[in-house]
Specification:
about 325 residues, alpha/beta, Enoyl-CoA_hydra/iso, 2-enoyl-CoA Hydratase, Chain A, domain 1, two-stranded parallel ribbon, ClpP/crotonase-like_dom_sf, 8 strands, six-stranded mixed β-sheet, Enoyl-CoA hydratase, 15 helices
């Protein structure tokens, strides 16, 4: 379990989700078809959804075309993310690619096969976006695990996510520039907000390759990890968010996005931040304050911040370890 950092977390994850780690950690674009078939038990499903605790993993599953997304796959990805948003048991999502790459962008073979311009225009004008729900804000935190190629529309998908974990040999870039394919899934909107207009224009206009080191330096990604560790570390990051009270998480996240993209002024952003505080949110805050008064969380420790039910096997293991 090279993707994991702690012994107990590794034991827990190994008991429940070896399948998604075996797929997600296969990051070499040159992986053979046989290797991909062995690691992928659902070769016909373009989108695979798996759930572990309060984390939902959404995998793009078209490894033969480096997970390029056609219109059908885009609609299925939108549906999978909407289902994750509506699931009361799911707090954080992880978006990843299966079989070596995250996503190589829009499947240009579909565009090339369109005989009438109006047909292609109908694909472009899909309400939520071509690549997925890229033309709206996702209602819950979403972490992207970047492996292999994350280019063109695939990079726009990664920008749709809140946080990005990139393997050190992965490749970013708007390679669509080479073929005259425009950015239509939010890349021109989100990228300047993340890294600044000047740097964004450099990447948008040149279509050049961006390495993991540069991506981290300019704030395009949040973590760079070893080859094979992308999905595991993205899951770790999702867990580090999911362990906290979620009403507060969503309030602060929404306020940050509103202030960045929607507010007409600094004052309006501040007003919205305060106006969206609800009775339920204050009750959650009161419960946290009561824990603090009891001594939980002081001195920088986060133990006990959020209670969770332990499965029987983990309770037995902890009991056994306490006797050693």
């Amino acid at each position: 379990m090279l993707c994991l950092q702690s012994y107990r977390f590794g034991r827990n994850l190994a008991k429940s989700i070896p399948s998604f780690l075996s797929r997600g950690c296969t990051t070499t674009p040159e992986s053979t078809g046989t290797d991909q078939q062995m690691a992928n038990p659902h070769p016909e499903e373009p989108i695979i959804v798996e759930k572990e605790n309060n984390i939902t993993l959404i995998g793009i599953n078209r490894p033969k075309v480096r997970n390029a997304i056609d219109s059908i796959t885009g609609r299925k990805l939108s549906a999978a993310i909407a289902e994750f948003e509506d699931d009361p048991k799911a707090d954080v999502g992880v978006l990843h690619g299966i079989g070596g790459s995250f996503c190589s962008g829009y499947d240009l073979s579909e565009l090339a096969g369109q005989q009438e311009p109006q047909q292609a225009l109908s694909i472009v004008h899909q309400p939520e976006g071509v690549m997925g729900p890229t033309r709206r804000m996702i209602r819950k935190p979403l972490v992207c695990a970047i492996t292999g190629y994350c280019v063109a529309g695939g990079l726009e998908l990664a920008l749709m996510c809140d946080l990005r974990v990139m393997e050190e040999n992965a490749v970013l870039g708007f390679f669509n520039r080479r073929f005259g394919v425009p950015l239509i899934d939010g890349g021109t909107v989100r990228l300047p907000a993340l890294i600044g207009l000047s740097r964004a224009l450099d990447l948008i206009l040149t279509g050049r390759t961006v390495t993991a080191k540069e991506a981290l330096d300019i704030g395009l990604v949040n973590r760079v990890v070893a080859v094979g560790a992308g999905l595991g570390q993205a899951y770790n990051l999702a867990m580090s968010i999911a362990k906290y009270p979620q009403l507060c998480i969503r309030h602060d996240r929404d306020a940050a996005y509103y202030g960045t993209f929607s507010a007409e002024s600094f004052e309006q952003a501040l007003e919205r931040e305060a106006a969206n505080v609800t009775v339920e949110l204050l009750q959650e805050a009161k419960e946290g304050a009561d824990k603090f008064r009891q001594g939980i969380g002081r001195g920088g420790s986060f133990n006990g911040i959020k209670e969770r039910k332990l499965p029987d096997w983990e309770r037995a293991e902890m009991k056994h370890e306490s006797k050693l």
